[in-house]
Amino acid sequence: MSERPVLIAGRWRPARATAKSFQAIDPVTGLTLPPLFPISSWNDVEEALASGSEAAASLASFPPGRIADGLDFAARGLLERADELVRTAARETALPAESRLRASELPRTVGQLHQAAAAARDGSWRRPTIDSRLNIRSRLEPLGGPVFVLGPNNFPLAFNSASGGDFAAALAAGNPVLAKAHPSHPETTRLLSETVFEALRQAGLPDGSFQMLYHIRPEDGLRLVADPRLGATAFTGSRAAGLRLKAAADAAGKPIFLEMSGLNPVFLLPSVLRQRAEELAGELFASCSLGSGQFCTKPGLVAFIGDDGSARFQAAAAAAFRSEEPGFLLGPAVLEGLRKAVERMIAAGAEILAGGRALPSPGFRFENTLLRITARAFLNHPAEFQSEAFGTASILVAAADADELEAAAEAIEGTLAASIYSESGPEDEPLYARIAPRLRVRSGRLLDDKMPTGLAVVPSMVHGGPFPASGHPGFTAVGLPAAMTRFAALRAYDNVRPSHLPPDLQDGNPDGRMRFIDGEWTRAAIESH
Amino acid sequence: MSERPVLIAGRWRPARATAKSFQAIDPVTGLTLPPLFPISSWNDVEEALASGSEAAASLASFPPGRIADGLDFAARGLLERADELVRTAARETALPAESRLRASELPRTVGQLHQAAAAARDGSWRRPTIDSRLNIRSRLEPLGGPVFVLGPNNFPLAFNSASGGDFAAALAAGNPVLAKAHPSHPETTRLLSETVFEALRQAGLPDGSFQMLYHIRPEDGLRLVADPRLGATAFTGSRAAGLRLKAAADAAGKPIFLEMSGLNPVFLLPSVLRQRAEELAGELFASCSLGSGQFCTKPGLVAFIGDDGSARFQAAAAAAFRSEEPGFLLGPAVLEGLRKAVERMIAAGAEILAGGRALPSPGFRFENTLLRITARAFLNHPAEFQSEAFGTASILVAAADADELEAAAEAIEGTLAASIYSESGPEDEPLYARIAPRLRVRSGRLLDDKMPTGLAVVPSMVHGGPFPASGHPGFTAVGLPAAMTRFAALRAYDNVRPSHLPPDLQDGNPDGRMRFIDGEWTRAAIESH
After folding, report:
1. Which residue, among A257, A249, A334, has the nearest Cα to A27 in the 3D structure?
2. How far B37 CA sits from the closest chain A CA (Å)?
3. What is the ipTM for the molecules in this complex?
4. Most buried of A388, B97, B224, B414 (most Cβ within 10 A)?
5. Confidence (pTM)
6. What is the edge-to-edge ordering of all strands in the sheet holding A232-236?
7. Helices then strands (H, E): number in chain A?
8. For residue B308, is pLDDT > 80?
């Protein structure tokens, strides 16, 4: 059987591949799926960079409405191919076809594309800023080169490098996208890429606006993220892979945006824990087991002060974790990562309250696992308990008192989200005031009385946080238009003649943009003097 | 004579110094100035980090108006000490006391502080964003640790780590500042630090909101920028020093913002060159010799197509460079750097049209130097001609035709600014359309018909650009409030109870902030449902 073609410079063609090819694995059977996918050589990357650079130059002065059309067409195209997409993604990932992929992830992906289109049309993400007296004007602009997008394994549609959040944000900001498929769902990525490519072609976007490779060698990845022609890299995945790419990009001074997972600790304060112990245990399990525990925002640690309520909570949580069959994991690497993470925590002193072992083949499954450690032991080796493990696993951290709970909050590494459950009474409020500021500076999103897994795609969303959750605390990977600003350069026009200015910086404001003029936000034109 | 005290944790005290001390040098005489300054050991840094962290926690929920008061008080304090500041800075830098320091740089510094105060009071830099139906809210917030500021040698007041642009931006965004003096003007920095410290104390800001060390060992600098307690680093200076700090900060995932100089090329198109050859030569020399050529935005390269106009331009420029005595350079390292840069360009094939040699001591002076190279030779080794050299020196690049001129634009490295002079006629406009997009993506600021040295402190200003001009193309070091966003983390509040929200994210909007609510910018409160 021949290898699937790659999409480079406006056409599908056989890869200039390395000797090896790869296949996806069905997580339910553990068997490889038929299609063969190429691992591209640097020749493919080189050609994609050249075409992407040309496209970048062309898109820089492209009407935003046309790019928006392409995003809208892509969204419609995904809906038209929904059956095939859902079926293929389900087979490659073992995620529930109907309840998850069709009912939740596909609509989210479609919605993101439409939101990105709307943001591109609106143009306020560029923050056009004018000081009229001095004739200095600035705005955010596309970077000048293609954005290399590496999507994760766990959201085959919504975070896919060919249609997901980074794709939409980079393109809406006027940058070409060079996508690399995640090797766990290459056929899904091929289908998405076909759809996206046709949509952008229909909107009249230049060749090279979207290109896709299934896989490249690690050394070529490091070379690509450092290439001067590249605009930036957007990576969602494991910390180890992200840090390697980050080092290569940083050394070359190329922007790279990383979403490298999170611990997403949940702190349960004493009063709420006593009043709602069993209910919170149920909420924890529901959040922890979403997508077989393979969410970047899975609650990986639950901290509380050990007392009556906590004993009931622990018993109920352990029962919940034991009550359901575990779902399938995305692949053998995920299973292995989970096994190692659990082993590591046990070696560091954690006890098992539920689960702890892999299930026999076929397929990749691990028992729903709940661990427990005292805060004192946690504080001795806090890093041992904070490596992300995809899967339905979490560790309870029992503090002896408020001081230990506060110390635990202080020991949390940079994370995507952090939750605090509390009652608005005299017992919990003073403790909230001690815990919240510590979790606040360590997380991109702070939640009250809510598990961290829900992630609405709205302008106020922050899916980011301090290192190592992300590479830069000032940005978000989810939420438009904010996510687009990652893929933009801030540029001023100083004394530039009217005919040389882009439309949104011209006095007349032909498209009615919201602009910051002489210190005030306004949609008004500048009166000629 | 005893060493000057450092400012740590709210008091001036003797440094816990390394064995060595240092003195500033009078650039006019080449002799050391009397005061002795300590090189702090890590013990000083450690104490400053601890105090700065405490201050960061306190400032995070501090009323922005109080921080703004501190900035305003500092501005007033500088004016009250103007005579002493101007005298001291002039002695340490040889910059003209009246025309430069008193008439230009001090007012700019004072204006920046007041602008930063106004931006802190206004609060719109935080971009409060609310999705009311889902109760998700986000804004930019201070980083959570002190900002380490390293100022450059060339603006002893306006870019000083104790009162300059980065100081003002970091503090206005709610971060404590840990300043390191530039060793070429430590006494100026001491005076500024006294003034700033008193101003912040008067406004009631916590100890550790501003701290200052004169110098630290290079290895301690690398350790400091990577310290987990640090919020971020802001560096203005040489590329070599900046890249060392960047590597250390990047490896630890700590934000670092760098302004590492620029070539600031000027492209003169044929028609304008023929019509205004002599006038442009005068503009070039005036811009190039500002501050003895020690501006980050000095035009270091001038490109054009060699023809009749260019011969007149070259002759007039050479005459202008020869017509004036060179000013004093900031110190021996600047002189040495300039000598090496000129030697390097000559070795790579440049010819000398004016100057080219150091002047005999006393003091640090180098002849106003104009070099020339063909575009063809430039294109063979473009990097050889793009290392920044402080001093009145520039290189003319003569292209044979439009294609060579375009290729020269394509070979320009990331830079702060780029200028194009053109006539709006049929000869220059098509060439402008070829050159401008290339310079656009390579520079933070594009100018028409204007030399790059002027740098207004207005919201639309961009003092940044692609690497290696800066470390990140999305930010600016000058221009408020944009420069403040470097020192901020984007943070969401998801389902957080009203009493736990910061004021500008509360429904009632007590301070009347401009906010992005449900997709619209407004100062209105959210009606209760």
Report:
1. A334
2. 34
3. 0.97
4. B224
5. 0.97
6. A11-13, A6-8, A210-213, A177-180, A147-150, A232-236, A256-259
7. 14, 21
8. no
**B54/B202 same-domain check:** yes
How far apart (Å, rounded) are the C-alpha atoms in residues A332 and A321? 22
Residue B57 in any domain: the answer is yes
Where are the alpha helices (H) located in B177-269, listed in sequence order? 186-202, 218-225, 239-252
pLDDT in tens, A217-238: 999 999 999 999 999 999 999 9
For residue A528, the model assigns a pLDDT of: 72
Site from A125, A491, A499 to mutate, B interface, most B CB atoms within 10 angstroms: A491
Q: Are strands A515-517 and A488-494 parallel, antiparallel or unpaired?
A: unpaired
pLDDT digits (tens, 9 = 90+) for B361-373: 999 999 999 999 9
Asked if A176 and A28 sit in the same domain, the reply is: yes
Bond from prior residue into A362 cis (ω within 30 degrees of 0): yes
Is residue B271 in a domain?
yes
Q: Are residues A292 and A240 in the same domain?
A: no
Contact between A143 and B490 using a beta-carbon 8 Å cutoff:
no
Q: Which residues of A touch B436 (CB under 8 A)?
A: 500
Residues in B closer than 8 angstroms to A442, CB to CB, are 144
Distance, CA of A386 to CA of A345 (rounded, Å)? 9
Q: Which of residues 245-274 of B touch A (CB under 8 A)?
A: 246-247, 250-255
For residue A323, tell me if it sits in a domain. yes
The reply to whether A245 and A273 lie within a common domain is: no
Q: Are residues A306 and A431 in the same domain?
A: yes
Across the interface, which of B136, B251, B479 has its CB nearest the CB of A461?
Answer: B136
Answer whether residue B529 shows pLDDT above 60: no
At B59, give phi and psi (nearest 5°).
-65, -25
Q: Note whether A448 contacts B496, CB cutoff 8 Å.
A: yes
Q: Which residue has the tokens 């438009």?
A: A480
Rounded (to 5) percent helix, strand, coil in chain A:
40, 20, 40
Q: Chain A closest CA to B112's CA: distance in Å?
A: 15
Nearest CA in chain B to A60: B437
A163: left (phi over 0), alpha (psi -120 to 50) or beta: left
Q: How far apart are CA A319 and CA A154, in angstroms?
A: 27
Range of the domain at A335: 266-448
Residues A313 and A334: their CA atoms lie apart, in Å, by: 28
Nearest CB neighbour to B456, from listed A136, A137, A414: A136
Number of domains forming the structure of chain A: 2
